[in-house]
Amino acid sequence: MKYLGRLNPQDPLFAYLRDDVYPQILPNDQVRNFRVFQFPASNEVFLYEETHSQQKVIGKFFQRPGKDPQNAWERAWNEWQNLHYLRNIGLNHKHFHIPQAFGIARHMNSLVVEEYCPGQSLSSVMSQSLAEHHEDLLYARLTDLAWFLAKLHNHTAGAETVHFHTQFPYFDKIVARLQRRHRITETQMREVYGFRDQWQKSPCMWSDQAVLIHGDATPSNFLFAHPRTIIAIDFERMKRADRAYDLGMIAGEIKHHFLRNNHHGEQAEPFIGHFLWEYSTHFPDRQAAFAAITRRIPFYMGMTLLRIARNSWLDWRYSQILVHAALSVLRR
């Protein structure tokens, strides 16, 4: 993290942290000052540390320059509401941790202030596992992540079945951005939509119960602390959908990690299989659950690879590797 200095006492945020947020953390202590740090690769997320107690909180500003303020407020409100909801339904216990939300302020660029929860991200775990040839570490963390997602999904399953077509607007948005950035050809676009049509006709994509999904299950949004505690963050995109959405996103991210770091995407397969098998242990019929999930995973995994390929910080050549990998996965 980058140290930015101390928060100006004349800044309205200083008074908000002092008067509204920190009394929830330090009810009997006097707040003196705040150090400010910026998270890497983020212009909107900051860490604030009270100088005397060294107690830390996270400040997430959802309003970005030039963006719709109403949309920013809705995203902030979603994050706020979802954190409270998950803690209230029992997703916060000794092995799973959901950050506490301390405050929300629309007039401060749609700010949400949350508990700071340190831990090693899944991204870091994958890098360490690959660099140190420590496969058991990644297997163990994927077991824990599967446990958390199964708990989230199964605890919130309802009677309504999945509406598969609700994923299409996001799918279209991904492909449109790939096209604008010249990362997908017309022929590849026709293939992508042809494959999607085939998935749409498959009964398995519509048959499961809808559950609450994380909605942004990227490796940076899952942190691991000892002993065997998993911390889940960034719930602004949580929604009701197919459980395979979260699982396919994790699978796609694992595939991407191996493709990018050692150019052998096939080496991701044992880890993906382990993750899905461990997830399936949380069902009465493990074999049936595994079979049902793995039938649907390729669509969401392929969509994830396309989503990653659209990122401008990736070079064009690697984006093509991801697009080809996505086509291979989507092909039935």
TrEMBL record:
It comes from Acidithiobacillus thiooxidans ATCC 19377. Residues 41-272 form the Aminoglycoside phosphotransferase domain. The lineage of its organism: Bacteria, Pseudomonadati, Pseudomonadota, Acidithiobacillia, Acidithiobacillales. This is Aminoglycoside phosphotransferase domain-containing protein. It comes from the Bacteria. SUPFAM superfamilies: Protein kinase-like (PK-like). It holds the Pfam family APH.
